[in-house]
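Journal club side-thread
Mid-discussion, someone asked how the predicted structure for our own chain would compare to the paper's figures. Pasting it here so we can look after the session.
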Amino acid sequence: MKRLYSIFNSLFFDYIAVINKYRALPYFLRNMMQYNRLNQDKGLRFHLKNIFYKAEDRFGEAGSISGHYFYQDLWAAKYLYEHKIIDHVDVGSRLDGFIAHILLFSKVCYVDVRPLKAEIKGLDFKQGSVLSLPFQDNSIQSLSCLHVIEHVGLGRYGDLVDPEGYIKAAKELIRVLGYGGTLLISVPVGRMRLCFDAHRIFDPQVIVNIFSELKLQEFLLIDDNNKILSNASFDDARNCNYGCGLFVFKK
């Protein structure tokens, strides 16, 4: 049932969200009438033209946690903070999560294939591709690329279709990483498969293989229950349906 819901949601619309909107309508009407009866503030009167219907939020959870992204962003930001990183380069990771976290203590050069219109203090944005990074060989000491390379070559973000895109992305990240430098990588892990055109899911050994020029320092796993396992094995990752592998590599 979860798989059918996921397919329908990706192809058409989120029918659970639509159902919740209709479920919430009686609550909305009741609250509206009660507010109008109680309100004495003329500046905050109810007007039909200003309706912004969000009553379905009563059926949601407290806040929004975007699965792997929330936990991996905290892990990666904590790692950089504990290692006293004050100058970092990131390729394509989540701007409103990981990047926002580390801007509190580090300057960040951020690369993404899509444009960024906002100007953010401490953030140096460079539009570019993970397949052709705007940096010299061996020039970066602290580098990250979180939940990115599984998408490369699928055309999802306007990039060229290339079945070996993730391999080429790994080679480019290796090229720019400096000697003694650290690379933080995260990817979906579990049974090796392609979910076109969203992402790939990797056997963790495949990631170690494509980054074979680097030394694996640490491996953690976000399992199917969104728990971070610091002592996880590759077999634990293989048993996941859609886990997230967190890799720390050194050059």
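Post-session note: Helices lie at 2-11, 15-38, 68-82, 95-102, 165-176, 204-210, 234-238.
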